[in-house]
Design brief:
- The protein has 257 residues and is of the alpha/beta class.
- It is globular, with a radius of gyration of 17 Å.
Length: 257
């Protein structure tokens, strides 16, 4: 039996929503509620996050993808649309490389097919050091708020508090493991470009984690590209309704397939 914890809602075409770093499946609750009228929406906790234990001694994105493929088989999830936020997008691309045409379509939500550059790798290394020294609570309390542009944080105080509380459900081992996995992930731009299914990107012009210039370089490799003006790394919070409708329309292309 798979150790992947998840929740699902609705019936129809399966849509898997994969959370990002310092996040859990519950972040997608409102999306699942709204989209479940049209789709079977399935939201897993990645291993080491939320209620899914970290069962591997060395966790690469490739290993996570294998676990998720096994989980999909157990849960009879066939030809899914897979959409991932940030780290979840990196996992989605690893799944795409592993499963290919077994995925109906994919979406990258504030994510990228490019590998980390040297500057970003250095930041990951410093993150590991900080986590080991200060622990989960201190890290996530400082990590989460800057994901939303500074001038908008007062407007989203309640949502930021919820995001911090959810991030605190991460394990220290899980956060360190995924920081290293993100640092060491390979470039999958060609994997994205060569996929013949539909491909979606949602980007934020003020995203500090995935720079808009990098996102724009994906335009010719995807079938749908949406740019959220004035949005940081958490479009699902900053422009929730608009993002839900983008996903509904994208996924709706396959309801008869």
């Amino acid at each position: 039996m798979s150790s992947i914890h998840f929740f699902e809602k609705g019936q129809g075409k399966p849509v898997i929503l994969i959370h990002g770093f310092c996040e859990i499946s519950e972040m997608w609750r409102d999306f699942a509620d709204k989209l479940s009228s049209d789709f079977r929406v399935i939201c897993p906790d990645l291993p080491g996050c939320g209620k899914s234990p970290l069962t591997l001694t060395h966790t690469s994105l490739e290993e996570v993808a294998i676990l998720l493929e096994d989980w999909m088989e157990e849960e009879n999830i066939q030809d899914p649309i897979v959409i991932g936020h940030s780290l979840g997008g990196y996992v989605t691309l690893a799944l795409l490389e592993l499963m290919g045409s077994k995925l109906k379509a994919i979406g990258l939500f504030h994510s990228t097919a490019f590998a980390d550059d040297e500057e970003k790798k250095g930041l990951r290394d410093r993150t590991v050091i900080f986590l080991k020294k200060h622990g989960v609570d201190t890290f996530v309390t400082s990590f989460v708020p800057p994901l939303i542009p500074e001038h908008k944080r007062d407007d989203f105080q309640a949502e930021i508090a919820v995001a911090i509380a959810q991030a605190k459900q991460s394990t220290l081992e899980g956060l360190i493991t995924y920081t290293k996995a993100m640092r060491d992930r390979k470039d999958r731009f060609e994997v994205l470009r060569n996929f013949t299914g539909s491909k979606l990107i949602i980007a934020g012009t003020l995203d500090g984690a995935v720079k808009i210039d990098a996102s724009r370089k994906h335009k010719l490799a995807v079938s749908e590209y949406h740019e959220l003006d004035g949005v940081g790394h958490l479009g699902m919070i900053e422009q929730k309704d608009a993002c839900i409708e983008i996903l509904r329309e994208f996924c709706g292309n396959f309801t008869k397939g």
